[in-house]
Amino acid sequence: MIPLTTPLPSLPSWPYCAQGADPTTGAVGCRGLHVSGHTACLAHLSDADRDTYLAGLAPGADIDHRGTPFTEDLLSRLLSALCDITGHPQIGEARFDGAQFTGEARFDGAQFSGTARFSGAQVSGTARFSMAQFTGTARFGGARFSGLVWFGGAQFTGEAWFDGAQFTGTARFSGAQFSGTARFSMAQFTGEAWFSNAQFTGEAWFGGAQFSSNARFSGAQFTGASELGPLVCAGVVDLSGAVFEVPVTLEIAAGWVRCVRTRWESTATVRLRYASADLGQAALSAPVAVTAHPAPFTFGPGNTVVENSLSGRRDSVRVTSIQGADASHLVLTDTDLTGCLFSGAFHLDQLRLEGRTIFAPTPAGWHRRGLWPARWTRRRTLAEEHHWRAQTADQPSPHPGHTTSPRQWRPGPNHPDPGLTPDPEDVAALYRQLRRAFEDGKNEPGAADFYYGECEMRRHDHSGTPKGERRLLWGYWLLSGYGLRALRAFTWLLAAMSLTVLLLMRVGLPTHDPDPATPGTLHGSKISLHTSTPDPALHGTWSQRMTWDRAEKATRVAVNSVVFRSSGQNLTTIGTYIEMVSRLLEPTLLALGVLAVRGRIKR
Fold it and tell me: For residue 315, what is the DSSP state?
């Protein structure tokens, strides 16, 4: 039985079959175009008239079957009548606007020499256009595909219109060639969309396109496309191995964006929302800017892209890897680099980080280090340091679907394999290069954390850092946090001054200042005199030495030592040595504290 059209409020603009119309209910009936010379569509012709019509067709003929309902058998008979000696249908201008296809619609290898119109067509089964050739314009705007769609290897010489088309099943355009403009604006893909190895010689317009699953453009070539998107994808937008040959702007709101081995031959701006972007081994021949877009994308005359499929996701853009990429052309703006892997990247010192860039923090809260409680200094860290510390601490791997506690270091993807986890020497090199990138950007406070991380990794590096250097780094860390922790340095300074005061009060200050003595010798009528001061003596009990007067003198000596001055106070021999040590140590601690303050506020 030939299916009839669903009642619609508007009437077709062409003379239509009206089979099954019901004036009482307003049902239009069959909307199929009259076959020339008849008052019924191809589906509702008598068998004899249909056979006569099909017999009169020849390869390359124009056909017009707008609104006609096709069964799989009827379509097969129509296309068979248009086949040439190669067995492929040869069609001139084809009009299937509003047609309805039940079962498979097989147009494999068909050649359309004129305009092919399928606007508003409905295909309930599989639609097959593999290796089809469209010499003229191909119009599929508003078409509805309920099953699998195959356009693999299809060639579109003219423009390809899929604006507003709906693909309920998987849509495969793998290997398709679009020589003209490819239009997929406002298209809806419920199943996976495959554009792998497709070639876009002209523009590729996906403004407002919605992908409920994954959009795969791996290996696609964009020869003339100056923009891609804005599009929304609830799954993965896979651009791995894709090639962009001209300046291009990508606008993508998605859960994941994979750009592994993607090649940009010219400048590119990649604006993202919500996405986790993987730029591993990307080839950048010109500057490429990856930026987080703060508001929903717009396209056309003020149309806002709907992002309902991404509701509930964290509104931040995360870069997960730039491993193996040349960072000299890369600019990251307002991105989250908490889990970004940098190992293996080239020219990290030339990476540009703009806007608000987020790195992984150290674990929060207190923890035990042996028998003593300890707390990690708050600073920005790299994911590689997290992975190494988690591996050396023998942290368990998190269960699938669970995140690591913020009180712990985050394990890496190869945890706990030490052979696949970066060691301190590798991580120190990453910190060093990124520190230079911050310094070149005149961001001294940002560079400070990376200098701290570099020193930390060198202190723990037992293979590339000599033992003596590690000990010096340990002392540098203990006294001032590598010259970056002012509070630590000033605390040590205060402790050193306090100890100096106590020692001077105890053994450094004499009990009383000695009186000078002037003995003389008589030689006939001459007397020779010389004055000498005895060495300061220390007498008295502990309570006699611990007085406010002696504390004031000791404090004056300690303060003068900080500024590298002599107090002029009489001291015992031991007190002299105490002052010498304090004049060496305390100015150093003061300098470290000042250096730490300067490193944090300089811009």
Answer: S
